[in-house]
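Ligand: magnesium ion. Inputs:
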Amino acid sequence: MSNVEKTFSIIKPNAVKKAVIGDIIKQFESEGLKVTAAKLAMISKDKCEIFYAEHKERPFFGELVEFMTSGPVLLMVLSGPNAVTKNRQIMGATDPKKADAGTIRAKHADSMGENAVHGSDSAESAKREIALFFEPYELVNA
Ligand code: UDP
Ligand code: MG
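Predicted complex:
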């Protein structure tokens, strides 16, 4: 059996506004990740601060929360072999200037902050992040 795992993904407000949801999902699907839960929603400020708690002391925290709550986002669970690592590869580096050509951030980021997508950094983070945004009954088995 291959190492099928789940990761948490957000299509951020700048990418939803630019109407590139389809393009981004197409890239996930063509590179082996399946969408196994999804909803378009606004994130509340309180929840966003919990979600990004690890960055609370960073200088960009206020701006990050403001951006992430500025418009609708697409919250997703992606499933597939090594989904956490695979998703990070497909997304590209946090700083779009450093993102490899062809990655989602290279194509759709507008800046370091407005970098189009979020992806969990570990299986542990994925578990916490999925539980923050989805009820167990909303998760489909891939
Ligand atoms: N971010 C920012 N300035 C920075 C570093 C990060 O605005 O100097 C934002 C950016 O949107 C990033 C998010 O904060 O995606 C979380 O940062 P992290 O280092 O966890 O990057 P990621 O895991 O998203 O690649
Ligand atoms: Mg991170």
